[in-house]
Amino acid sequence: MKKENKILKFGVPNQPLKEFTEELFRRASYDFIIDERSSAVHVDDPEIECFFSKEREIASLIKQEILDAGLVSKAILEETKNTKLREICNLGTLKIIAKESEVVLAVPKNSRIKSIKDINGKKIITRVPEVTREFLRKNKISAIIEFSEGTNEAKVPTFADAVVEFAYTGETLKRNNLEIIAVLMKNSVILAANETMFKDKWKKEKIENLAILLKGARLAQEMAGLTLHASNDMLEEVFKVLPSLKKPTITHLRGENWFDVLTVANKKEIRKIIPKLKKIGCTDIVEFPLNKVII
Amino acid sequence: MNILKLGIPKGSLQEYTLKIFKNAGFDINIPERRYCLEIDDPEIECVLLRPQEIPKYVGKGKLDLGISGEDWISETKAKVIEVCDLQYAKQEINKVKWVLAIPKDSEIKSVKDLEGKVISTEVVNLVKDYLKKNKVKAKVEFSWGATEVKPPKFADAIVDIVETGTSLRAHNLRILDIIFKSSTKLIANKKSWQNKWKKEKIKDLALLLQGAVMGEETVNLMMHIPKKKLKRILKTLPRLKTPTIKKIAAQDWYDISVCCKEKGIRELIPKLKRMGCEGIIEFPTIKVVV
Fold first, then answer.
1. Residue A3 confidence (pLDDT) above 70
2. Which residues pair with B261 in a beta bridge?
3. Cβ A7 vs Cβ A47: under 8 Å
């Protein structure tokens, strides 16, 4: 019995989170393979037992304490909202360096519904009825909410007046001649766990360690390391330009009035920072890739 | 101009070989349907060949240098110089294994029972050496492939490469013994090794290739450590080289940079964070030359 307890049962989500999960675990130094045909997950850690399924099922299994933890999107977590589910860490957007995905309320372009107030008494179809209900309650609106699994954009206006859906680029909505009138929430990937699991000291430490590695791997996808040389009189200006995520490491170059500066920064910021540093007069600017960043 | 003739193995070792050459700083391009490869070093001439044939050609001096498996070097009994090993340490479990297998219901229970039987294999010499060592006399027949299908009709036992074991099980065979475990080797011709220029070129190449193999399984770790915890944390750090310690200006903090094996990093990083390290970053290495 005791030995059995030293296993973390972990939910691995299928599409659209499958590739995201594989990449993240590999960067966290795990050998990690999902065999979609057999729904088997191979991980080179005997203390982790993986279960490959839909996010909705994973969230529900964590709630029932059948699984200890897993990866699910924020919207699905809200949908399964329960005091027993705890968010351990937010792993950011699904697509790396892309616009955040959102859960939106959309209506046909030629609809008489112009704002959320006009939804009163209308019919909304959605994959996330609980999230929708909560949104309506907060805005003091009552409408009919109907659960519908998938291709919901095409079902408006034939089957309903409005739709609540996930949107990345908004392209699918546009193609179906729909217009966004409200954003219900920003979506992201969450490492979630069952509340009671934390009573087990071993499991608590195991999941916290996993969170450090996954979060570190995720950050490293968006960041890069940067080193440069700057003279004493440039330093003050250099610090103004550098982001303050991590304390930069400054080393005196031998026998000179120059310093070596090392830091990490977001890749998007770096493309703005480098020309600025060059203008200040910095030399030997080197950018290098990262595997993990733990701040 | 001096030219070094190099043999690159085609097949299962190909992808791995090209990768370590790339990380060693050499770009190799395989033109379609051709076996003469393009390499971005005018002093090297590159040919793609079956790994079975590379030891033979290196032995004869048709090639100065080649990459092949230990199994084929032994099998061909080629007289070559083994320059260095190019196996990832983490591939230890994935080393090529040649096994002796027999039908599940066979009367053969041990090596001794092979006396007078027929063994089918692609590696005739390896099997003969194995039998000799075990003082058993049996008939060893060369097999062109699809060796697993041969017992019990065409042979009593086989010696074949095993990866997952699925193929053996599918043919109702079971493993009796592992006769050879093979890793990847860089081999050179004896005469080429006498040539001063060639020897130097080969040694430099070996240094870079081994550096690339090591770089693949090594990462760089950098972190900030408060002064009072420095001693304790330095003891925890595994290391390939002495860590670089820099004092952070005007603060009681140190910046530590260390090179360590990726294996074990999963346990190390959370531990360091719990011990009070801040700003931990890990980045890849391409070559590590110690």
1. no
2. B218
3. yes
- The token duo for A19 is 């590739």
Candidates A101, A102, A157; CA nearest to A125 is A157
- Name the residue facing A293 among B224, B267, B281 (closest C-beta): B281
Strand, coil or helix: what is B123?
A: coil
CA dist., res. A193 & res. B49, Å (int): 53
pLDDT one-digit tens code per residue, B226-270 = 999 988 888 888 777 778 888 876 678 888 989 888 888 999 999
Confidence label for B116 from pLDDT (cuts 50, 70 and 90): very high
Whole-angstrom Cα distance, residue A86 to residue B247?
40
Enumerate the β-bridge partners of residue A85.
Answer: A194
| H helices, E strands: number in chain A | 9, 17
Q: What span, in angstroms and rounded, lies between the C-alpha atoms of A22 and A28? A: 10
CA angle A229, A233, A235 (to 5 degrees): 50
Q: Give the contacts of A184 (CB within 8 A, at least 6 positions apart).
A: A102, A103, A104, A105, A131, A132, A135, A164
Q: How far apart are the first and last CA of chain B?
A: 32
Q: Which chain B residues are Cβ-neighbours of A28 within 8 angstroms? A: 266
> Rounded to the nearest 5 degrees, what angle is found at the Cα of A118, between the Cα atoms of A115 and A120?
135
Q: How far apart are CA B219 and CA B196, in angstroms?
A: 35
Name the helix (H) or strand (E) containing A127: none
Cα(A127)–Cα(A80) distance, integer angstroms: 12
Tokens of A3: 């030995």
Alpha-carbon gap, residue B187 to B196, rounded angstroms: 17
What angle in degrees, to the nearest 10, is found between the helix axes of A201-222 and B265-275? 100
Contacts of B224 in chain A (CB under 8 A): 247, 249
Say if CB B118 and CB B112 are below 8 A apart. no
d(CA B190, CA B81): 6
What HEC string does B165-205 produce? CHHHHHCCEEEEEEEEEECEEEEECHHHHHCHHHHHHHHHH
Which of B282, B285, B286 should we substitute to test contact with A (largest number of A Cβ atoms within 10 Å)? B282
Q: What is the pLDDT of residue A243?
A: 83
Test A291 with B248 for CB contact under 8 angstroms.
no
- Alpha-carbon distance of A148 to B54, in angstroms, equals 63
Residues in chain A with CB shorter than 8 Å from the CB of B262 are 29
| 8 A C-beta contact, residue A190 and residue A214 | no
Q: What is the largest CA-CA distance in chain A?
A: 77
Backbone angles phi, psi at B71, to 5 degrees: -60, -45
Contact indicator for A44, A28 with CB cutoff of 8 Å: no
